[in-house]
Amino acid sequence: MNLLILGGTKNLGRHVVEAALRDGHEVTLFNRGRTAPHLFPEVRRITGERAAPDALAGAEWDGVIDLSGLLVHDVRRSAEVLRDRVGHYTFMSSIAVYADKVLPGQTEDAALLSWPPDAPENVFTMDLYGPSKVRAEQLLTTRYGDRTAAVRSGFVVGPYNPDFGNWGEALATGGTLECAARPDQPIQWIDARDLADFLLLVTINRLPGPFTAVSSTWRMADLLDAWHSVVPADLPIDWTPEVDRFHLPHDGSNDGTFQLANNRAVAAGLRLRPPTASARDYLHWIRQGNTPPPPPH
Fold first, then answer.
1. pTM value > 0.70
2. Closest CA to 290 of 14, 58, 4
3. 247 pLDDT band (50/70/90 cuts)?
4. Closest CA to 13 of 111, 3, 24, 215
5. DSSP at 157
6. In whole angstroms, how far apart are CA 243 and each of 83, 86, 218, 221?
7. Per residue in 63-77, pLDDT tens?
8. What InterPro entries does the database record attribute to this sequence (predicted)?
9. Where are the domains of the chain?
10. Measured between alpha carbons, how far is 113 from 99 in angstroms, rounded to an integer?
């Protein structure tokens, strides 16, 4: 297939491009050309800004995977330009879209956050992150109908990605495993390579969304033990709530966010590797001289 990828050179994006090329697809990248411009010299590149994607008006693609749709304004513009130029539009969304942060077992049909009155569509704040993803999903559904899918994920782990990066560094250097969460706190995640494969699957098969692409729910202490198990050293663990690099509310007010149902995505073909595989690969990646990137938001 002929695929357009919005973004594609950092974090999750590079895994999506690698998966697409591995499977023999033709790839075009649209981004500003500022992040890792040396990557993927064999693919076609269109340089431009998300806010002004008019450069995309001169071609057609079988599908688009939107990895950089942070502002509603930008998603609206790309949706308009590409409406008659792509067969399917796959949007990288977030589990932050769900309105209820406490109820466990929510499916894709659960209530979503509403858009605040008079909120700007061209300005990003963390308060608008969840509502912006909801609004973007809705405008894409309005324009594309069943030709669009939203893939909702949370923590994305693995090489080139920031989540749990402090654990990877601790494993590689013999440092402290910091975890500002309750040991019994529920947690879900997904390896970036599994998410990339699923985004590609949804696009190639033109599946309508949404999909919640996360692991099953684990206890935080059990996940930490799984990561810890890939090295023989008995590393110290710090559960201090004030640790800056990984913080979740201790009062249960966000527990439902990491007890979501992933049945629909699994039935569609989502495959999930065990956490020890992600930990082992992250450890190897860091020992090769790499550094976990900072969180994107």
1. yes
2. 14
3. low
4. 3
5. E
6. 45, 45, 21, 16
7. 999 999 999 999 999
8. NAD(P)-bd_dom_sf
9. 2-155+189-214+250-272
10. 5
